[in-house]
Description:
The structure holds two protein chains of two kinds.
Chain A: E1 6-8, E2 13-14, H1 18-44, H2 49-77, E3 79-82, E4 86-91, E5 95-102, E6 106-112, H3 115-119, E7 122-129, E8 136-142, H4 143-158
Antiparallel strand pairs in A: 2-3, 3-4, 4-5, 6-7, 7-8
Helix pairs in contact in A: 1-2
Chain B: H1 2-5, H2 7-17, H3 20-29, H4 32-46, E1 51-52, H5 57-83, H6 86-114, E2 116-120, E3 123-128, E4 134-139, E5 143-150, H7 152-156, E6 159-166, H8 175-178, E7 180-187, H9 188-198, E8 212-216, H10 230-248, H11 254-266, H12 268-295, E9 299-303, E10 307-312, E11 317-323, E12 327-335, H13 336-339, E13 343-350, E14 364-370, H14 371-382, H15 395-422, H16 427-454, E15 456-460, E16 463-468, E17 472-479, E18 483-491, H17 492-497, E19 499-506, E20 512-519, H18 522-530, E21 539-541
Antiparallel strand pairs in B: 1-2, 2-3, 3-4, 5-6, 5-11, 6-7, 8-9, 9-10, 10-11, 12-13, 12-17, 13-14, 15-16, 16-17, 18-19, 19-20
Helix pairs in contact in B: 5-6, 10-12, 11-12, 15-16
Amino acid sequence: xxxxxxxxxxxxxxxxxxxxxxxxxxxxxxxxxxxxxxxxxxxxxxxxxxxxxxxxxxxxxxxxxxxxxxxxxxxxxxxxxxxxxxxxxxxxxxxxxxxxxxxxxxxxxxxxxxxxxxxxxxxxxxxxxxxxxxxxxxxxxxxxxxxxxxxxxxxxxxxxxxxxx
Amino acid sequence: xxxxxxxxxxxxxxxxxxxxxxxxxxxxxxxxxxxxxxxxxxxxxxxxxxxxxxxxxxxxxxxxxxxxxxxxxxxxxxxxxxxxxxxxxxxxxxxxxxxxxxxxxxxxxxxxxxxxxxxxxxxxxxxxxxxxxxxxxxxxxxxxxxxxxxxxxxxxxxxxxxxxxxxxxxxxxxxxxxxxxxxxxxxxxxxxxxxxxxxxxxxxxxxxxxxxxxxxxxxxxxxxxxxxxxxxxxxxxxxxxxxxxxxxxxxxxxxxxxxxxxxxxxxxxxxxxxxxxxxxxxxxxxxxxxxxxxxxxxxxxxxxxxxxxxxxxxxxxxxxxxxxxxxxxxxxxxxxxxxxxxxxxxxxxxxxxxxxxxxxxxxxxxxxxxxxxxxxxxxxxxxxxxxxxxxxxxxxxxxxxxxxxxxxxxxxxxxxxxxxxxxxxxxxxxxxxxxxxxxxxxxxxxxxxxxxxxxxxxxxxxxxxxxxxxxxxxxxxxxxxxxxxxxxxxxxxxxxxxxxxxxxxxxxxxxxxxxxxxxxxxxxxxxxxxxxxxxxxxxxxxxxxxxxxxxxxxxxxxx
Lengths: 165, 559
């Protein structure tokens, strides 16, 4: 592909490497409740064994492949960056989305930590604007860094006058 | 409790429920708190500043409930009577109706008793709730819209419902219900007074003192009603109604029998043709009536102090006042039907106006009217719109649409072929299906070309202009100062065609407005020009075709 015009440069930072483990756990948690009951039933119910173990094997294979490969790929693809003026993220590969929220229009900065996330020492920072479609999520930052970032963002946005609409 | 009976208060009842444990705990700790509360309520009821709702609401409620119970009772009476006798049926249904009416009216009386509102310096306050007490207080400067409406019964008693909206569109639980306060009902004069007072503060920032009429309704505009999508829906509803009615009388299959009889006598094609004509005529009459009811005597005014006011309605009189400060743009909407008659509709993009609810017509400033009228109204609301041509989108955007049409045609063809393979069909139905399928496929192709022709974007003065769509063509004029972020997306298919979608997020209206399938490179320059400075730090310009794509994660960009 020849690139001759203006284009978006990717945001500077990758997410924390621990995200790979976190995403893997999530995918595993998603796959297990499907595979285990199927497998257990397959072992117990003899007449239907083929029709229970076969889907279990298929789901397990896909799930395992996804668990191994996808998080590594996501870690490469997802990017984030915060400048003095804006929050900038890039997510997705097949459906790439760049989000830019200017500092002056940010209304709230939330930090959330799920149970699995906490085990990996990670946090999510959600930056919302007055638009329902304008939220920017930074999923998978180091917990301490996230807290510092959220404080910094809150301080920066607090200095901007107006109601950000 | 009141929350179950009065829809307008439902939200407040539910929202207030969350506060209850807290209050209950306090009440048990401090026994004399309850006595104090009773005192303060008595004080509130005697305080001349605290105003009650209008007593005539009781009559309206009683009549409405009786009417509702009656219309529900008729099929019940018919049903019970067919099984037993008329006397028994009436003996059951009449007392039930009376009881229901009395109960609902009694609840309404309680609601009226406990609901009080007042306007103080800078705030509008309301006390409500029978079991779950609720006090709400709105800062006047936060009030963005005042909506008066009155259905025929309310009008007969000289009453209106007043809905006060704030600009808050915040996320989070229950926020949508927290934003508006409903006074159901007050006297018409009181409603007008509230409307004027609640939005009065803005008189200071504007020199104009005279009311200015922006558009006036012409009766001939109802003719655009039948061209709306409501026409087939209303006709379908009528057909459904006929079946329902015959079902009540225990003859559910009757309409089918009649049609079968007609087909035997006149042949399928003639009956089919007449059926289609009857369907269209019924739908047209229905949508004509709906359009007339909703927009009869429509007026758009600019009031002193920068408020827009829309008044309309034949049976239900509606009035919406909208603070102009909260307007972030307009949308000229041309659905395919009214576009074929060179007409359009004007919608407003405003903060705090719930436009995403299905069937909401609150955002409509001017209903379907000739294009010139709409353009003039748009210019009157937003200032000159400019007449620069929109920038078209790359040819590949058309390729993309034609591919979609191809997929649709393929799916239709497959379904038709499968249907013929699986079932043996009479010649009549087979020809009908093939003809309809062919028309659909051709239609899909035409829509693809037409949708491509619609695509365009431009910067005109203070607006970002974006046009798209064929079935619902819409031209958005979004205030550039109202853009509060970008969401830029590119699917793998778009990437191969060199296209990109630019979505401007805003606090108003739907929350985001897109320029779809634009050139992947020039659209970024466009975005950069639309909101200077926001996107620039993240852009890189590659002038030479040979430039290497090497901007890695950690290598700082030249900017």
